[in-house]
Specification:
Largest sheet of chain B: 2 strands, antiparallel
CATH topology of the largest domain in chain A: Rossmann fold
Order of helices and strands of chain B: HHHHHEEHHHHHHHH
Largest interface: A-B, 42 and 29 residues
Number of strands of chain A: 10
Number of domains of chain A: 2
CATH superfamily of the largest domain in chain A: P-loop containing nucleotide triphosphate hydrolases
Strand order of the largest sheet of chain A: 6-7-8-3-9-10
Helix content of chain B: over 70%
Shape of chain B: globular
Order of helices and strands of chain A: HHEEEHEEHEHHHEHEHEEHH
Radius of gyration of chain A: 20 Å
Strand content of chain A: 15-25%
Bound molecules: adenosine-5'-triphosphate, magnesium ion
Oligomer: heterodimer
Chain lengths: 267, 320
């Protein structure tokens, strides 16, 4: 009955529909020796939403990212991407399926040019990986898309510099352009704005907002102002455990969260 | 878009200078046997090719193998055995050396690439040592004596390779083809991925590349081309011995590559030329070869950290 009713009002149906979880992890756990770095974490990343993962230093945020992207094997738990169990797949395989991450420490290819950094990301999706017999001019057909990506992050004028010669903030911007080159379903960004100036922060925030229109974004971010402005949902991690999940207001009123953040310099 | 065409023009200008230098070098190599001993030149070419093949792995993929003598020396044995015992033509013998070394590379690479850094080097060393002891014991390698008196034969059944100039130009041709192959691999879509793995392996994985497959492919190519060099050497010197599969040989190729400059196209060739010249020079002097080359190596590495060619390139870049 209700199904028929909502179906009769399509506009409303779209509004009230539960957002689709693209990536979801259940009971995720990781031990290092005897130390439990991540303990029974449940987390979902929804299509067209920006989800923040926050928590004090050493809470296990990066470890959760490493588990989700299969850079680390979970001790237990399951991870699903688009409903498919990816818990046992390799990191490269998961990336090819559209779950792409950035790294907390800037991760470019330092001795390649800015343009080549982006082209490397474009190569595989366009079927240019193993061709050892072709000349480099075979990559010219990637230039247009690569330049588009560089322009979208304002790096077009620096495309011939080596990535190593960019400022820290610009390297991070380059990383985002490289990640976007894969056109991922789910984007995992580990402190994408750390070490950036105000101008880059604003630019990256608008890029993230833009790409999240048709993707799921999960990001670690320490700047709570950015989180409040940008993110639809927040998960707070402390000592490897989720202590709260919800929108900004819900989470900031949570007693445990208040306690965790008290006197740590956060607002 | 206007800027883009500009950069392509720049790229072409750079290659035109390269082509000019290359032409001078090739003409020099064609004229060289009229001024130097062909056998000395051929030794240089064999080691230069070996070092270039090694550099494909160290300089462009970032993998330090300490077992490349197995491919160089292994191929020398395969080729020597095929032409001497089975009466194969030289080109078929060389092909066998190349394929055999590539096959060995597949097995050794498969076992080694799971590890990184020093562990990778140790595994390649261990496997190469196993191969050394196999060669010491196996009947077809003739133990301590090695395979002696390998006939050079007739190339395609026509060209007499016992003529010094004939074999020299044959070796030069194979050398040029080998170096061209390496240059092509390095400057290809595949080479780009190798470089990205060298630069940041985790990032390459996060972009969806199965880096183990790329590393293995690079390892096999490097092994096969090292085998090509070793096969040539067996024909030039007409013997294959344990020296070619010893760990000292693996060390020598590392030395040549570092000396000339890793990750440059010309560096390993210069390094090989230098080491071979030095060895020739010292062979007739009372000085101990290994100690002198070792000392020179230490001094060079301390002063020219990027190798000779690497330093020159860096200097030119600073000037322009
Ligand atoms: N490979 C590892 N081996 C052992 N312990 C580890 C390993 N990786 C992480 N840890 C530990 O797990 C805990 C969580 O680390 P993690 O890097 O995930 O924290 P984080 O929330 O990302 O912190 P930060 O805000 O400083 O980036 C830390 O105590 C860390 O020391
Ligand atoms: Mg972290």
């Amino acid at each position: 009955m209700t199904g028929m009713l909502t179906a009769a009002v399509p506009g409303r149906h779209v509004q009230t529909r539960e957002p689709r979880a693209v990536l979801s992890a259940r009971g995720l756990r990781r031990e290092f020796g005897g130390f439990v770095a991540v303990k029974d974490v449940n987390i979902d990343a929804y299509h067209a939403q920006i989800h923040a993962l926050i928590g004090p230093n050493g809470a296990g945020k990066t470890t959760v990212f490493n588990l989700l992207t299969k850079f680390l094997e979970p001790t237990s738990g399951t991870i699903r991407l688009d409903g498919r169990d990816i818990t046992r797949l390799s990191a490269a395989r998961v990336a090819r399926m559209g779950l792409v991450r950035s790294f907390q420490i800037s991760a470019t290819f330092p001795h390649l040019s800015v343009l080549d950094n982006v082209r490397v990301a474009l190569q595989r999706p366009r079927g240019l990986g193993y061709q050892f017999w072709l000349s480099l001019s075979a990559l010219d057909r990637l230039n247009e898309r690569a330049l588009e990506l560089l322009e979208s992050v304002g790096l077009q004028d620096e495309r011939h510099k080596l990535a190593a010669d960019l400022s820290y903030g610009r390297k991070r911007v380059l990383e985002i352009a490289t990640t976007l080159a894969l056109d991922p379903k789910v984007l995992l960004l580990d402190e994408p704005m750390a070490g950036m100036g105000q101008e880059d922060i604003a630019r990256v925030a608008s890029i993230i907002r833009n790409v999240a229109q048709d993707r799921a974004v999960l990001m670690v971010e320490h700047n709570l102002k950015v989180v409040a402005d940008l993110c639809d949902r927040i998960t707070v991690l402390q000592r490897g455990e989720v202590i709260a999940t919800g929108d900004y207001v819900t989470v900031s009123e949570n007693e445990q969260v208040k306690l965790a953040y008290m006197g740590t310099g956060y607002e | 878009m206007a800027d883009l065409t500009l950069t392509q023009a720049e790229a072409h200008r750079a290659t035109r200078l390269d082509v000019l230098l290359l032409l001078i070098a090739v003409v020099g190599l064609i004229a060289a046997p009229f001024f130097f001993y062909p056998i000395f030149l051929m030794k240089m070419l064999c080691f230069a090719l070996f070092a270039c093949a090694f550099n494909l792995l160290l300089g462009f993929t970032g993998l330090l193998s300490f077992g490349h003598a197995a491919f160089f020396g292994g191929a020398a044995y395969f080729t020597a055995h095929a032409v001497k015992e089975w009466g194969w033509t030289p080109e078929a013998g060389i092909l066998l050396g190349l394929v055999g070394a590539g096959g060995m590379g597949l097995v050794m690479g498969f076992l080694a690439i799971r590890r990184q850094g020093i562990y990778f080097a140790m595994i390649t060393l261990a496997l190469a040592q196993m191969f050394f002891f196999f060669c010491l014991q196996a009947p077809f390698t003739k133990g301590e004596d090695g395979i002696q008196g390998v006939p050079r034969g007739y190339l395609f059944g026509l060209i007499d390779l016992n003529q010094p100039l004939n074999i020299y130009y044959f070796v030069l041709a194979v050398f040029l083809i080998g170096v061209f192959a390496i240059w092509r691999i390095v400057n290809s879509p595949f080479g780009m991925i190798l470089k990205s793995i060298r630069e940041n392996e985790n990032r390459a994985i996060s972009l969806g590349y199965s880096v183990q497959k790329y590393k293995l492919a690079a390892f096999v190519m490097s092994a096969a081309l090292s085998g090509l060099a070793g096969a040539l050497k067996a024909l030039v010197f007409q013997f294959a011995t344990l020296t070619d599969v010893s760990w000292q040989m693996s060390g020598e190729v590392i030395l040549m590559t570092l000396l000339g400059g890793i990750g440059t196209m010309v560096g390993p060739i210069v390094g090989a030329g230098l080491v071979v010249t030095l060895q020739n020079y010292l062979a007739t002097s009372p000085l101990p070869v290994t100690i002198v080359t070792g000392t020179i190596f230490m001094i060079c590495v301390l002063i020219f950290r990027r190798g000779i060619v690497g330093e020159i390139q860096a200097l030119l870049r600073r000037l322009s």
